[in-house]
Amino acid sequence: MNRQSGLALLLAWLTFAPQAPKTARIQTKEVEYREGGTVLKGFIAWDDAVAGKRPGVLVVHEWWGLNDHARNQARRLAEAGYVGFALDMYGAGKVTMARSGADLAAVVSFHGSLGTKTPAEPGKVKARVLVLAGGADPFVPPEQVEAFRKEMQAAGARFEVVTYPGAKHGFTNPDAGTYGMPQLAYDAAADRQSWAAMLRLFREALGS
């Protein structure tokens, strides 16, 4: 996926070993980092009862930027046993996605734009790819989804596309309806189902 309007989650392994207290609690922290000379501010969430190496998931925000929705997704990932890191994409305007061949275990796109000017090359896509799309999303029309299917097939990628009938753009974002755009709407059922699909893929990708 390219720079997009949807939410993307990228799965990799992180070594994250805080001291484990007696009771579990989700911890969060703002993290400042740099891309060249640009200062970026991300958001990390983890369960402080777990120590040692665990899978980390990068949350790539929607076009609105690093907002509460992206932060909440990082928290939800921490509750599911991962380290969630919501990155800041707009500092340098650059982000890694699955087509580039990044060494990631899995990539999940929620209501994300699938068009590209640089299609994936055969054998290039290393990650397993899961695309979760809204059936009534005018920003990601059926022809774009079908073009993505053909691109992934030609590239020999391991991928799956799931479409939720009636779901509009931003279906995982509870605040989608507040932006004053009829193309956007939260869909609780699609949100639950797509999150469950993501967790299944992550379990399979990690072999557990």
How would you portray this structure in words?
With 208 residues, the chain is α/β, with parallel strands linked by helices. The protein has one domain (7-205): Rossmann fold, CATH 3.40.50.1820. Helix content is 21%, strand content 28%. The chain is built from three helices and eight strands. It has helices spanning 68-79, 142-155, 188-205; strands at residues 7-15, 26-35, 38-47, 53-60, 83-86, 106-110, 128-134, 159-164. The chain has an eight-stranded mixed sheet, with helices on both faces.
Short description:
With 208 residues, the chain is an alpha/beta fold. It contains 3 helices and 8 strands.
List the helices and strands and how they pair.
Layout (H helix, E strand, L loop, with lengths): L6 E9 L10 E10 L2 E10 L5 E8 L7 H12 L3 E4 L19 E5 L17 E7 L7 H14 L3 E6 L23 H18 L3
